[in-house]
Every structure is written in C-alpha cells, then in structure tokens.
Amino acid sequence: MVRFVDKGTRVLVQGITGTQGRFHTRLMLEYGTKIVAGVTPGRGRGEVEGVPVFDTVFEALEEADPEASIMFVPAPQAKEAALEAIEAGLNPIVIITEGVPIKDSIEIIARARRRGITIIGPNTPGIIRVGECKLGIMPSGVFRKGRVGIVSRSGTLTYEVAAQITRAGLGESTCIGIGGDPVVGLDFVDVLRCFQEDGETEAVVLIGEIGGDAEERAAAFISEGGFTKPTVAYIAGRTAIPGRRMGHAGAIVEGNMGTAEGKMEALRSAGVHVGSLPGEVAKALKRMMG
C-alpha cells in the first residue's frame, strides 16, 4: 500500500499554538505520533508539549526534517499555509480546517498534484494508521488494530462505525476521512486503490453521504474490477430535503443528483453490501469475513 503515514512518519503541525493545535498535538503525541516541529508565524522559538515551534515551514524543515504536515490554520490563512507546506515538499498534508473557500481548495489541490503530493481534506477528521500514527482529531479510543479499512466523508459516522467494528472483534487497519467539502484532495477511488494493494486490509467500509458523485464513481471503479475486496457501505442523509445543505458543505442534493437512493443503488449494482443503518455495517463485515 502507498502508506500515507506510519509509526516512523515525522510530522509538522501548522497552527500548533492555537487552541485546537495545542489540544490535538497533545493527543497525537499520546497516541505515538512522531511530531517533530510546529509552525505559527511570529511565535517561533517557543515550545508546545515539548515540540519546538518555528516561524516558517522552511525553518522547521531545516531544523527538524519533518515529512508530513497537519494543519490547524483558520480558513482565511489555509491557502497560504498549505502552499508553504507544498513548496517544502511535505507529504501528505492533512487539512483539518473547515470553511476553506472552494477557489482556495482548487488552487491547493492543483499545486499539490503537480508536485505529486497528497492532500487529505479540507474539512477532514484526518487519517489514523491504527496502532502506529494519528494525524487528525478522531478519538483514538474507538480504534483497535485489525483488518478493516475505513474511508469516509463523515467524521462522526467514522467513529461510530469504527467503535462497532472494534466491538465485533475485527478492528481496523487504516481509517481516512476524505473530507466533507465539495472539493477535496483524496477521493474514494484513490483510497480504494491503495486499500487494494494493502496486505493488512482484508475488507473495507465506505461511508458516504448525499451530494456530489464520489460514491457513484467509487461504484464504477468497483464494477470495473479496480477493487475486489469485500466492501460494505453506508450512505448518510436519506431523509435530506433536496436543495438544502445537510451538515457538510458538499452534502447538498440538487434535483436528482447526489441522492442517497442513487448512491445506494449504484453501490449495490457493483456488488457492495449497503447497510440501511450504521449498526448493520459491523454485522455485515462479520458475515463476509467469517
């Protein structure tokens, strides 16, 4: 598998001195994530949780040699921070920030693709390689090392489903929140392609929601043989009102486009078991994996 992160990944936290940056830096360190530096412009030469803070990404790169970045930067400054991380060659870059303007996200992702850099997010809970490394805000207590990969557009549903998988005794390998915005770096197909190659992942849970066509594209990828492992899906938002945003910025239905029913039908046609309730996911996995 293209391992986005593992126990050896050296991590930079952008926005480390803010409330969220400080809080989640502590939790990520407690999980075992190797955080080697933080950046907040104008706050260099300090420390957060024993992690040295620098004024710029390039100073951090010179002094601490980070490989990946996680961003807790306010939306108006997110583009500048992300472009600085891209220019420094950090990979992946996890953008937790919600509310990044779409035009900024488009520019960030386009610039990253030209450099071969993976963007996770924006508006993502992050990524966790269970038992090794967490770059994100997910509650680590619900995860246990196991054989199920999770890829999701929803943070809270990820945690709920992971807790049920853990209770079922299956556990998780890697869990990735691709983000709930209309424009995100990774999509379902990117992650499924990686899970297909990952020897530690035997089955996958795909958690989608209304809006856009990401789930339909994933279904087409599975139908064409791009992903062959057992897959269970859950689609949130079946009762959503057309034209009204529900939760994430990307969760909006326009006419017949992006409906839960359309997504569920596409996935079922591709041979994916689609649960009617989140609680059905772990039970279906248990049956499929034996």
What global shape is seen?
Answer: globular
Q: Rg, please?
A: 18 Å
The sequence of SSEs as H and E is EHEEEHEHEHEEEEHEHEHEHEH
User: How far apart lie the N and C ends?
Assistant: 24 Å
Strand content: 15-25%
Global structural class: alpha/beta
Estimate the mean pLDDT confidence. 93
Name the CATH homologous superfamily of the largest domain. Answer: Succinyl-CoA synthetase domains
Give me the number of helical elements.
9
Class of the largest domain in CATH? Alpha Beta
Q: How many DSSP E strands?
A: 14
Provide an overview of this structure.
- By secondary structure, the chain is α/β, with parallel strands linked by helices.
- It folds into two domains: 10-120, Rossmann fold (3-Layer(aba) Sandwich); 138-289, Succinyl-CoA synthetase domains (Rossmann fold, 3-Layer(aba) Sandwich), CATH 3.40.50.261.
- Helices cover 35% and strands 22% of the residues.
- It is built from nine helices and 14 strands.
- It has helices spanning 19-31, 57-64, 75-87, 102-115, 155-167, 188-197, 214-223, 260-269, 280-289, and strands spanning 10-14, 34-39, 47-48, 51-54, 68-71, 93-95, 119-120, 126-129, 133-136, 145-152, 172-177, 203-209, 231-236, 273-275.
- The protein has a seven-stranded mixed sheet with strand order 3-4-2-1-5-6-7, sandwiched between helices. A seven-stranded mixed sheet has the order 9-8-11-10-12-13-14, sandwiched between helices.
- α3 packs parallel to α4 and α7 runs parallel beside α8.
- The model has no long low-confidence stretch (mean pLDDT 93).
